[in-house]
Design brief:
With 364 residues, the chain is α/β, with parallel strands linked by helices. Helices cover 37% and strands 17% of the residues. It has a single domain (14-360), classed as Rossmann fold (3-Layer(aba) Sandwich), CATH 3.40.50.11740. It has 16 helices and 11 strands. The protein binds iron/sulfur cluster (SF4).
Length: 364
């Protein structure tokens, strides 16, 4: 492997070269690996990891971008809520430009006079609620990584009796979605590159039922390019040896048990429910809702909101991209009508979106 192909982003280029050689030695045929997490997708592109791999290795981006998998109906719900007089929507910035089905997004709603505040954590939203009598609604979008801090914020709101702090909950948990993906025979994956941050909470143990049911090799990966390369090597080695087990190349952060305390807080505040995923549809038990003692913080209940089915924007193939069925260049709008500055679908908006990665780095 040519050392010049190994980017400066690798802390140890010699090790990167050795790992690349090991991958080439171990890949003996087509190998379809899904990187579940959007942060992995970005790191793979940024460091040119695809260009180091044998031609037989196909890296397929999965549903690991929380904004991207939030259904169109749920995005519409957030945008429509801006029309309630006096309401304050306190949101992470990555949601601002996600288009709703009626040609609006939170940024345009704000330009038209709605009060939409960018916050960096749910605690910021709680502080806004403390400073006003108006309802402050935080759209809670994210996987197991971000859910504990949101649960802790709900506990704080209850303890301080800040009843105008509310959540629009679109949380999703990863294992049921992986189960749905692996049940799809069309996808025919050979291995999963499992998300490091989510795994820090759920632990290695969370993937064991998937390995048992689908006999799929799983490797938990960190986000440094060397982490990703070594994880691909471990997957290639498992496939070559006809093994299927959970391996962890991110042991400095992820343990077998994960973070039981974080899971306790989640369980204290939330209970499982079904959730609707863009591309994957309704998946039983893949969402979370507030337990009844926290219901006064539930914006959907307070405002009587229901989520309707909303089709993808015309021509947009985000749903198929999120399930690894097509790649962004196969969308006729890619880099023509749909660009990072003028996105049509969420996969082009989000900093973790697959279309944004292809657009920024090209097909490398
Ligand atoms: S390129 Fe744009 S329109 Fe096409 S799938 Fe991606 S986000 Fe949707």
């Amino acid at each position: 492997m040519l050392p010049e192909k190994i980017s400066e982003g690798f802390r140890d280029r010699e090790l990167a070269k050795k790992l690349t050689e090991r991958i080439h030695e171990n890949v003996k045929g087509p190998l379809r690996i899904m990187e579940v997490c959007g942060t992995h997708t970005m790191s793979i592109f940024r460091h040119g990891i695809r260009s180091l791999l044998p031609i037989d290795v196909e890296l397929i981006s999965g549903p690991g971008c929380p904004v991207c998998v939030t259904s169109g109906g749920d995005i519409d719900q957030i945008i429509e809520l801006t029309e309630v007089p006096g309401i304050i929507i306190a949101t992470f910035g990555d949601l601002l430009r996600v288009p709703g089905s009626k040609g609006k997004n939170l940024a345009t709603a704000r330009a038209e006079g709605a009060r939409v505040e960018i916050v960096y954590s749910p605690v910021d939203a709680l502080k806004i609620a403390e400073s006003t009598d108006q309802p402050v609604v935080f759209p809670a979008i994210g996987f197991e990584t971000t859910i504990p801090v949101i649960a802790a914020t709900v506990l704080e709101a209850k303890q301080k009796n800040i009843s105008n702090f509310m959540l629009l909950i679109y949380h999703k948990v990863v294992p049921p979605a992986l189960n749905a993906l692996l049940s799809d025979p069309e996808l025919a994956l050979d291995g999963l590159l499992c998300p490091g941050h989510v795994s820090a909470i759920i632990g290695e143990q969370a993937y064991e039922p998937l390995v048992e049911q689908f006999r799929i090799p799983c490797v938990i990966a960190g986000f440094e390019p060397l982490d990703i390369l070594s994880s691909i090597y471990m997957l290639a080695r498992q496939v070559r040896n006809n093994e299927a087990r959970v391996e962890n190349s991110y042991g400095r952060v992820v343990s077998r048990e994960g973070n039981p305390r974080a899971r306790e807080i989640i369980e204290q505040v939330f209970e499982p429910c079904d959730a609707s995923w863009r591309g994957l549809g309704d998946i039983p038990g893949s969402g979370l809702k507030l337990r009844k003692e926290f219901k006064n913080h539930d914006a959907k209940l307070y405002f009587g909101l229901t989520s309707n089915y909303v089709p993808e924007p015309r021509g947009c193939r985000c749903g198929e991209i999120l399930t690894g069925k097509v790649k962004p260049p196969e969308c006729s709008l890619f880099n023509s009508r749909c660009t990072p500055t003028n996105p049509v679908g969420p996969c082009m908006v989000s900093s973790e979106g697959t279309c944004a990665a292809y657009s920024k780095y090209g097909e490398i």
